[in-house]
Amino acid sequence: MDYLLNVNWNKITPCLVLLVLEVVLEFSECASQAEVNKHLELGRDFLARGQLSDALTHYHAAVEGDPNNYLTYFKRGTVYYALGKAKFALQDFTKVLELKPDFTSARLHRANVYVKLAKYYDAKEDYLQVTYSEPYNEEAVNQYHAMDGLAEDLRLAEAYYRGGDMRAAADLATRLLELSPWAAQLRQLRAECYIAMNDLFSAVSDIRSVNRLQQDSTDGYYRLATLLYQLGHVSDALKARQYSRCIDNANKLLNIEQEVTLVVFEANRWLCHCYSKDEQYTEAVGACGAALALQKEARVLCDRADALLGLEMYDDAIQSYKQALELEEGLQRAKDGLSRAQKLQKQSEQRDYYKILGVKRSASKQEIIKAYRKAAQKWHPDNYHGDDKKIAEKKFIDVAAAKEVLTDPEKRAQFDAGSDPLDPESQRQQNFQHGSPFHHFQHGSPFQFKFHFN
């Protein structure tokens, strides 16, 4: 104890502090390395099970824990490579070669990434370096000799494009893309060729791939949007009233692109309109709903309302027209549609001449006459064999009334607008709207039946 009292602590304390710090740092280093090894082990296990994203998470942690370990970068680079993330794989393999320039496996992997990116001269240089270290590396030797041919094919494809030979350029680009699927410039070149050949659906597919490969490609998304507006297949079908073709092409577009919101909206908007015009009302309502979920647009709401009218869902149709008017207050189509829907709702409580004859609202005059003859034969009192002749007489009168209205263009137009031309009350209201309360007397009786049988 006396000895301890005589010690000069002012001299010894700094030495003790340094000793303690050294022990702490050594222990911390060991703990840190143990954590890195644990992450590497977990990464290897996940990689073996094919769980690449989980493996990548642990390799990230390992790199952060030991940023100077070339093997950690290499392992993470191989995961990036398997995930098709060329940019990050290239960065990791390059970092490995900075830390250990003679690591042949990393150089060979980087060369393979260069090939997939169509950077053939960079790949050739890496393959050459590999052959210096491993003269009998068959993959490196064969790939080294193949690079000049691939580079020449790339130049030739670009020359075909500049010379206007789009088919030859597209075919050559397709062959190169089999080896270089991550080459955004090759897909862009082929997309431009497809556009020139008017194969716009294929062009959309390639531009979508370009956007995915470049990730931050604002120009690519703008090009895609422009291309969609140039996509004449659907609009041409609409102009020609070929609604089935319109539906087919819009569905093809959805099959190609399901991620870019603008594309999905445009395709569903076309489906909404064309299904409705083709009288596939249930499908129309579904497509309209899909479009409206992405963007509220008055004309889509009107198409939806038209389809709802076809399904005789009058309350929903009225609501849809009102929503359209909230978006575009002066939209005449919505105003006319709302008025028609309200009249049809009221009319639904009365006779529906189309239902009486069992024909569609789009039925031709010939179809109406054919349906009338069939119904008239069925319900003619002289032909009816049921017990209650009064039922037959009433049905027969309704059939005759339906034929009169639907074969007369003017009366049919009134009925389609929601007014029954054979209903005095309905005509009285319409005449008041036209400023002549006595107008309906000018035509005598509203019922003018004429029966013709073969």
Automatic annotation (TrEMBL):
TPR repeat coordinates: 36-69, 70-103, 298-331
Compartment(s): Endoplasmic reticulum
Main location: endoplasmic reticulum
Keyword set, alphabetical order: Endoplasmic reticulum, Signal, TPR repeat
Alphabetized SUPFAM superfamilies for the sequence: Chaperone J-domain, TPR-like
GO cellular component: endoplasmic reticulum
Gene3D superfamilies to which the protein is assigned, alphabetical: DnaJ domain, Tetratricopeptide repeat domain
Pfam family, one: TPR_6
GO biological process: protein folding in endoplasmic reticulum
Signal peptide: 1-30
Name under which the protein is recorded: DnaJ-like subfamily C member 3
Species whose genome carries this gene: Papilio machaon (Old World swallowtail butterfly)
